[in-house]
Design goal:
By secondary structure, this protein is α/β, with parallel strands linked by helices. It contains 2 helices and 8 strands, in the order βαββββαβββ. The strands form 2 sheets. The protein has a 4-stranded mixed beta sheet with strand order 1-4-3-2, covered by helices on one side. The protein has a 4-stranded mixed beta sheet with strand order 5-8-7-6, with helices on one face. The protein is globular and about 40 Å long.
Length: about 120
Amino acid sequence: MLGYVTIGTNDFEKSKSFYDKALAALGARRTMTNERMQGFGVKGSPGMLAICKPYDGSKATNGNGTMVSLAAPSREVVDKVHADALAAGAKDEGAPGDRGNGFYGAYFRDLDGNKLCVFKMG
C-alpha cells in the first residue's frame, strides 16, 4: 500500500551522497529525480524513499515521533545498513537488535535529523 515517503533536507547534494552509502546494502539506487527531489528505490519494489528541498523554501525540519522504516531481507543487511549509515555520518538511535515478537531493527538519524529504522521481521 505504501507508495513513497518524502523527507526534507537542507543540503540536497550531501543528503544524496549520504543515502547512496546508507542504503546500498538494501540494493537501493537513485530513481526518480529533479532539481528539488531525489528518489531511492529497489528494483522490483514499488516503494520509494525520497529526499527533497522543501517546496515552500523554508528550512527542512523533522517531526517528533515521525519515523521512516525500511524493510531488509535479512538481519545481516539490517546490521550493514546501520553500520553504513553511521559511517556516512548518521547519529545512532538504537543499535541492531531483537525488539521482540520476531522484530529485528536498528535506528539512526540522517544528516538532517530524520529518524529511520531498518528492520527484518521473522
